[in-house]
Amino acid sequence: MTVIDDLTSALGPGAVLTEPDDLAAYSTDWRGAGSGRPHCVVRPSATAEVATAVRLCHEAGVAVVPHGGGTGLSGGALPDDSGTQVVLSLARMRRVREVDAAGDTLTVDAGVVLADVQAAAEAVDRLFPLSLASEGSCTIGGNLATNAGGTAVLRYGMARELVLGLEVVLADGRVWDGLRPLRKDNTGYDLTQLFCGSEGTLGIITAATLRLFPATPRHATAWLALPSVEAAVSLLGQVRARAGQSLAAYELVSREALDTVLRHVPGARDPFGERHDWYALVELSGATDDEGLEPALEAALTAGFEASLVTDAVVAGSPTQRESLWLLREGISEAQNHDGASLKHDVSVPVALLPDLLADTAGRLEAVLPGVRLVTYGHVGDGNVHHNLAAALDGGSDDDLRAAAGDLADAIYDAVAERGGSISAEHGLGTAKRDANAARTDPVELDLMRSIKQALDPDGLMNPGKVLPPR
Amino acid sequence: MTVIDDLTSALGPGAVLTEPDDLAAYSTDWRGAGSGRPHCVVRPSATAEVATAVRLCHEAGVAVVPHGGGTGLSGGALPDDSGTQVVLSLARMRRVREVDAAGDTLTVDAGVVLADVQAAAEAVDRLFPLSLASEGSCTIGGNLATNAGGTAVLRYGMARELVLGLEVVLADGRVWDGLRPLRKDNTGYDLTQLFCGSEGTLGIITAATLRLFPATPRHATAWLALPSVEAAVSLLGQVRARAGQSLAAYELVSREALDTVLRHVPGARDPFGERHDWYALVELSGATDDEGLEPALEAALTAGFEASLVTDAVVAGSPTQRESLWLLREGISEAQNHDGASLKHDVSVPVALLPDLLADTAGRLEAVLPGVRLVTYGHVGDGNVHHNLAAALDGGSDDDLRAAAGDLADAIYDAVAERGGSISAEHGLGTAKRDANAARTDPVELDLMRSIKQALDPDGLMNPGKVLPPR
């Protein structure tokens, strides 16, 4: 019996994909970057089936690659090209198991799409704050396995801060039931946090109990033109002082990034007549009767204008206007898919060092590949920027860009490392950032991670080759 | 050479205590509960010295028991009674290494007393929100190693949520430098969260980079009389709806707990003429110019009176009055030390189940030991109560109480377990709760924890016997 026979007889033929046409979707990610060759794809519909599939693979010595919405940016959900790895898709695990509005918790299968998690919370007048550009496709299991970030981290934290408990299928097919709706529980090691962000290398998340928050249907949203990144950082302090914890998003957008959106995203429109170097999308959020939002935003903008931190500003006057402003930010990622090759980088430093980092990096990149386009945007409040690179519009070529990819990456990563930053702030390591991270990481830290990997996955069959380089 | 000789020659004679008089303070905890016998006490003054001490113990095959402020409630910092374990005190590690007000971070040695951490934040107009009754004695290293809770969890989270990075001496004496001031960093497993709450069984925390928050010097504080625990839970919703994220504390106090304070704490005074069954201390906090606090508190109390959720109320009119109200809550733990034997329990359930839990537990305890006094108080907003037991004032005896301790604990823990709760919400397991927890924990979960322990401490020398029962 091959593992395909085992899986088919245990889960039924409908749960196992083997045809090349069916496998194609699991062989590349949504940006078309990276590629691999699945031995087969297994699509269990319940935790017990995930456990069975993992157990059968474990017994056969076959590696398992968990797959959520396929929207990862570091290759974490792709099999290698050996044709021997089984891709395990969580897409059929899409039950909302329990909604507890009184207790502010929600328990869902791993395959529930993030937008559906948000909708389940909204249906009981609550907020599940995780929000990213891919929320219509990505799954909550993938969000937790990669510790996703997004635009609401500033107020609510990363994905790992939004989870109370997990259910995980372990490397040998046993199930750990850690689905606890408790706010406080000090009974041993925090296994939930260990699985969050481990990218499927320690086990497969099959369900999660999530934290809900009071709904924030009221928003005060502004799109600002800024003279510099320094101004963006200074203005953040001004906004924070006035908005406090109602500050929900503070996103930086470079002119290059805005131009990319204006070129490719239908309906996108520059709110200003003049061109500016930098923009910020600022949003405060609160309860329906929270009448302090608009005055706080106005006061912060007034202070910003007076201190020459803001050059121009437009405040959304309606939900439609708010959406059109958000489109300028949320459209960047999709727009880049239509804009030729894009080398994605996702780095963080302490917030105060951001201006210096960006200035330094720009010079280093120009030295590597003159004319390289910096499509820079990100979550300034978190010290996190997406520093994506594209070929010059006039005369640049994608081939030249790709040929310089390694040197360009080194230029960015070295600048980040010199400032004590992270070369993967929210996208994870997968295979794409794995080696670059290992080269810049204390061997003691790599050793600790390897020890944990060895302890929980002694045969090395859980998403092998991700996060940690092969020895 | 014995390990005492090794330590003395490496760290100097002043760093090693061997005299019985000196060891006494490390042989028992601050409540006088538990007892152990240290082989010696080593007091390093820097990370390199901690590393040397751990390495020497590792080479000698001697167990190491880390010791912070000695205020733990589960015996986690006590050596066993074999006389072979080295207690490693962090008390001389008390440098504030770096304060970064712009970046809202603070880096401190593990031995810095929590009150001094708070003061260092206050000195730059920031808040470090962790706050507990023992803050004048406990150390930040111990707070993180045990994932301390306290009265500000409702707004700011447990200790683990307040830390960005750690420095840890590992079982073999190597140092892991994970002191990163980054808000976002997805480069591998979350080792920081693994060490938080591991009670020194995986390594010794020697320093931490902490998150700071905007200062909240303005408070609106009320002491309320409530008809029932149900009323306390309902009122919490009313307060939350009006105060939002400015709700900083919501503490429940039973009449028994208040009486204990009134009997033993100098200066404590009942704010009301009449006796009531239950009380709550409610506090909103914000910036100096946050003029919404008092109106929000008043509105919540008015709604509470109208819905018969509040029987009486006093709002603090001055900082001194605020302190005198807090004394009634913060004094409980100390008062119990003067009130005869006290069996401490620290449990949590989903908030909505608290009234049912307390009612059920009261009946079960009375059946085990008629007349037993329930000194109940805690953090209602987190679903966490301290359910401490004392002998009846008239006719009860501490001996009878102690004799029934096991059955009383089982009565509480069973009621908690039936509701999916935790038998140690914030005090950790140490040795005191270790076996009771193991008996109620899924073997898969215990196995996972043992695998991690084995991976990071293969010789079992880091605080052995804590958290996990010996095999």
UniProtKB/TrEMBL annotation, chains A, B:
Pfam annotation, one family: FAD-oxidase_C
UniProt domain FAD-binding PCMH-type: residue ranges: 34-215
Family matches, as PROSITE patterns: FAD_PCMH (PS51387)
Domain of life: Bacteria
Coiled coil: none
Alphabetical UniProt keywords: FAD, Flavoprotein, Oxidoreductase
Zinc-finger as UniProt keyword: no
Family: Belongs to the FAD-binding oxidoreductase/transferase type 4 family.
Protein name according to UniProt: FAD-binding oxidoreductase
